[in-house]
Amino acid sequence: MPNTLNPLELIARHWQPSARFVRRAALATVVMAVIIVVTGGAVRLSQSGLGCSTWPKCTPDSLTPTAAMGINGIIEFSNRMLTYVLCAFVGLFIIAARARHPRRRSLTRLGWAQFWLVMSNAVIGGITVLSGLNPYIVGSHFLAATALLTVAVLSWKRASEGDEEPRDVVARPVRQLAWLLVAATAALTVIGTVVTGTGPHAGDAKKVHRIPLDWQEITQLHVDFVYIVVGLSVALWFTLRAVKAPAAARRMVLELFACIALQGVIGYVQYFMGLPELVIGFHMLGSALVWICVLRVALGLRDRGPLQEDEPDGPAPADAHEALDPQPAAASSR
Which residues pair with 37 in a beta bridge? Predict the structure, then answer.
């Protein structure tokens, strides 16, 4: 009795994506993760967090927004629909990584990790609505989106490198400094989320519970961590120069500098202008870009060897078929 192949194995038999296609599919998940972060912020800043009054439906009697709900219902529902678009891109990456020969299990695992993060964040989003925009749930919703972005960046990096054992391209203390920078930036992101939970933009026009902390004090703590991140970035750049690290690593630190500088300008503008919604939206975009740059800096200080390039997309090679069907070819002629 022939073995039953699952759909991913069937696709792998008939389609062999190129290494470039897998990389682009991974990059697309990064872009979509950033879009989800920004559009989620747009929902809150436009006071559309309760545009749909319940979940998973938009209203108790309707799956989609009604005319009476106005623009807020459309914004909230559109953000929900983006989850399906995100799932499509993550699904494409999983399929491409699975069909790729030789099979790279690390890529498929990262793809499935993205999928489950999307599903869990959809549930958190539903709890956010059902809880009436509880600021702690809203904050966890953003942090889960940041976790998705983290795994997407890891997937993009792994799709661009080989499968050799990782080796440090700089001394271990330098890599430890880079990961300290990652930790400081993660703390900065968490504190920024708390700033949001204490600030005036709750996500809905009516009175919504806020985190009971002094907004100006927590904002000052956020600024303090900005200085810590800047200081660690400067220290890392000078260290990389001193140890004659590869030019690519130093260039990524300069890219991080550019993102931090732009984010700092946006931060001061939003503070002194009284927190205008559009500027806060750009600040959220900047937060995602800074996080991507920091992860690239840390991941760029180790090497797994070159990625084997190949021919453009086409049918799977014969040895890939044999790997899926271990029966010898002679058996089929009997």
Answer: none
Q: Which token pair is 311?
A: 């021919």
- For residue 16, pLDDT over 80 is answered with yes
Asked if 108 and 98 count as a contact pair (C-beta separation under 8 A), the reply is yes
CB 33 within 8 A of CB 148: yes
Q: Which amino acid is at 14?
A: H
Please state, in angstroms and rounded to a whole number, the distance separating the CA atoms of residues 219 and 185. Answer: 15
- Residue linked to tokens 């500098």: 257
Angle formed at CA 123 by CA 89 and CA 135, multiple of 5 degrees? 115
Mind listing the pLDDT tens digit for each residue in 252-268? Answer: 999 999 999 999 899 88
Beta strands in the chain (DSSP E): 167-168, 302-303
pTM of the model: 0.87
CA distance to 8, 72, 115, 169, 313, per residue, from 108 (Å): 11, 37, 11, 26, 18
DSSP conformational letter for 62: B
Looking up tokens 């990652």, which residue turns up?
182
Q: Indicate whether 205 pLDDT > 90.
A: no
Residue 328 to residue 110: CA distance in whole angstroms: 33
Rounded to whole angstroms, the Cα distance separating 49 from 128 reads 9
Measured distance CA(66)–CA(316) in Å, rounded? 48
Residue carrying structure tokens 């989850």 = 83
**What is the Cα–Cα distance from 12 to 258, expressed in whole angstroms?**
41
Neighbouring-strand partners of residue 314: 16
Q: Given pLDDT bands bounded at 50, 70 and 90, which one contains residue 321?
A: very low
- Number of Cβ within 10 Å of residue 11's Cβ equals 17
Q: Residue 137 is which amino acid?
A: I
Q: What rounded mean pLDDT belongs to the chain?
A: 85
Q: Is the Cα torsion angle 192, 196, 197, 199 positive or negative in sign? A: positive
Give the residue-averaged pLDDT of 137-143: 91
